[in-house]
């Protein structure tokens, strides 16, 4: 678990969602760095609510001001909840009354907004077609970025219309594919053959090798700026998939299986996001 990379992703999401100032983000980072240094020294494989509680207790014992403790508790608890959504923690925190400005349930994108991102990828290059397919697949299957990059050509069973995904802990799950995705993937496989692949990664670059997480982040950042006027990261596509399922009335257990969550409590976060989405839509028309 690379906590520094997760911290960077978390702060990037705050900037994209909330537009907080640079000094504010730097203050968040200082608080998180202090927490990460403590838990990394203990060589944790997975964070638990106890890690947050112990850190806050240590601050109190060290004589930190009450206002400082409260600020750090809110920032670190928000980060923990982010880790829970991403699957890097499994036990939810006890309820906290977060200040409004620090409520960081991820906003979701509508299918129309996703399509705007895909449509912004214009051109006849085989790599543009690859990028369009990657964005569509990530959203339509609720993939983590690492899962997308880890896909192999034999992850596909297009005749049976499903995708085999290897998630956290190398656990395999089966995700269905739409007819449109199947058609795009069949076309991509034909295009891929002409790119002199040097590995069995499903999505390859100019050198015939598999792409990195960083490269897909860059692709999505540019496409979303052109399509939406703002940058998003791959987690947003997964959040949007989950929210769309909940809005459509999918049973919680089915959503859990499709997302590859080990615990139902992680999936339940999206019931709150779905309610927030419904409230936003209601407010927009009344």
Share in helix: 55-70%
Give the full name of the CATH homologous superfamily of the largest domain.
Intergrase catalytic core
Largest sheet: 3 strands, antiparallel
Number of helices: 12
What's the architecture of the largest domain in CATH terms? Answer: Orthogonal Bundle
Quote the beta fraction: under 5%
| Distance separating the two termini | 45 Å
Number of domains: 2
From the alpha-carbon coordinates, what is the Rg to the nearest angstrom? 20 Å
Shape: elongated
Quick rundown:
This protein is mainly alpha-helical and 286 residues long. It is built from twelve helices and three strands. Helix 5 crosses helix 9 and helix 11 crosses helix 12 (264-285).
Topology:
Blueprint: H1 3-18, H2 22-41, H3 49-61, H4 66-86, H5 111-119, H6 126-141, H7 145-149, E1 156-157, E2 162-166, E3 172-176, H8 179-193, H9 213-228, H10 234-247, H11 252-259, H12 264-285
Antiparallel strand pairs: 1-2, 2-3
Helix pairs in contact: 1-2, 2-4, 3-4, 5-6, 5-9, 6-8, 6-10, 10-12, 11-12
